[in-house]
């Protein structure tokens, strides 16, 4: 199993379509005894939260977000966690909206030097 997500900060490698997470979005993760949660914000996302579980290198969670246009959205995501050669973590995600139609894949990577306790 790769290292804990506790205190790590991630960002997407690429922008998604408008109203979704993008390279300006920051995810601040917590992890304890197989439970994971994170707050996120940035770009088109004013505030978001996710909660779920982790078994080995697989994270399974649900997310909800408030966009800067005042609309909300929610969905489900499964991520495979791997360690990069430099020790940072990477999550390859498969997600689908539950509040509307649509699904996709994305990749988030740990940002070096980000303060884990920073505000979102």
Quick recap:
The chain has 120 residues and is mostly beta strands. The chain has strands spanning 9-12, 26-32, 35-42, 45-55, 58-67, 72-83, 89-97, 103-110.
Strand line-up in the sheet with most strands: 1-2-3-4-5-6-7-8
- Shape estimate: globular
Q: Gyration radius, to the nearest Å?
A: 13 Å
**Mean pLDDT level:** 91
Number of helices in the DSSP assignment: 0
- Multimer state: single chain
Question: Approximately what portion of the residues adopt beta-strand conformation?
Answer: over 45%
| pLDDT < 50 stretches | none
CATH superfamily: Avidin-like
Outline the fold blueprint.
Elements: E1 9-12, E2 26-32, E3 35-42, E4 45-55, E5 58-67, E6 72-83, E7 89-97, E8 103-110
Antiparallel strand pairs: 1-2, 1-8, 2-3, 3-4, 4-5, 5-6, 6-7, 7-8
3D architecture notes:
This protein is an all-beta fold. It has a single domain, classed as Avidin-like (Lipocalin). The protein is 0% helix and 57% strand. It has no helices and 8 strands. It has strands at 9-12, 26-32, 35-42, 45-55, 58-67, 72-83, 89-97, 103-110. The protein has an 8-stranded antiparallel barrel. The chain is globular, with a radius of gyration of 13 Å.
